[in-house]
Amino acid sequence: MVLAVAFVSIASCIRPDSSSPAPESDPLVIRTRRPPDNPPPAAAPASTATRPGTGQPLPVLPSSSPPMDVGLVVDSESATIGGGSAIDLVATLGGWSIRLAAGASARITARRNEVVVGGSARGAGLDLHRTGQGSIRVNGRDYRGQVRITAEGGKLTVVNTLTLDEYLVGVVAAELGRRPMSDWEAVAAQAIVSRTYALRSRGRWSEEGFDVRATVSDQVYGGIAAEDPVASQAVAATAGLAITWNGKPIDAFFFSTCGGHTERGTEVFRGATGPYLRGGSDRAPDGTAYCSLSPRYRWREEFSGDALRQALRRYLPAAVGTPAARVTRIRDVAVPSRTASGRARILAVALPGSTVEVPSNEIRSVLRPASGEILRSTLIQLGVRRDGDEVTHLVVEGSGNGHGVGFCQWGAMGRARAGQRYAEIIEAYYPGTRIERVY
Predict the structure, then answer these.
(1) If we measure between CA atoms, which residue out of 395, 399, 400, 391 comes closest to residue 382?
(2) pTM, whole model, 2 decimals?
(3) Which of 177, 263, 308, 319 could form a disulfide with 303 if both were Cys (CB 3.0 to 4.6 A apart)?
């Protein structure tokens, strides 16, 4: 059920001086009170939270891990909140709170620098507290921990605050997929890599009010729905472990599939200067790439002449500043320079009168197929067909998926199936580093 209609009929009840709350039998219990006279109940401990729809307790995780603030919703005009148990929405200022009954939902919007609940109740911000053993739901997805909502310039930011290890159980399976116990060493390696990435990234988005985003901008975080027994066990078993260089967490770059060779960090990211991001062969003694089991180990994309021209007109301006009006005819597309791993360092696009060079970190954004997704990798070979001096057909045959720097997720699974332990897997992708307990 949606709460917005209920707020319209009881708008007077949300003022701080109101004294007529809805009856307890009403499924939408709306109250006003002035904390600390009647503060909201303390949140249930993480270990007593239950999985939505089952009533089963979520895995117990160590309580010693540091807190993380995760940006769930950023720069959005609205969000929907609710929970499996009752939720108290407590205004940051104004001395009022609202109880949202279990199973109910409320639409949150932004009005300049105020958070608006159900179109009526307004405040500088909202803190969401669950009153029982349920979870807090944001845009239909359930989360551990607590949630804070703020507004600025008519846009909402929704932040999930929880411990690092609680965050990780919502990351590992979302990133690696749900794996069988036979892949446990790879899952444990991913847990350590993701913990290291999170520790290194704390405060990265501090100006926006959180540490990391819940998307591929950082690590994919799916909340409780993404949790998996094998991933939860891996997070718990490796609690406190991180990958270090000179005693500090490393830049733990990772990606899906390397195609048989990882990349030197500075070939892709200017700041990826760590000596452990050196790149190298990722093949078994028999020559088979460890990531060859990946569905993206080999792939192919084709562009007609018109489709290629449309893609370049759309994406070249943002990538290298070439005006779309210049892309009238494509005379050639080539890779004149490659990195040590065989990836394209430069994509040369010959246009009438000049040739545009696209650097490695923009190639995937420029050569987008019809789906609009970025090209899977730069480990590519091109097949060009021309009619006179104009390209009429382009074939891109590629290997791998992702930037290629650091930890190869499908390679880790191949290594685990070859009998390698998580420490050996991590050493292969970040040579010279150590695994240390940091909390």
Answers:
(1) 395
(2) 0.85
(3) 308
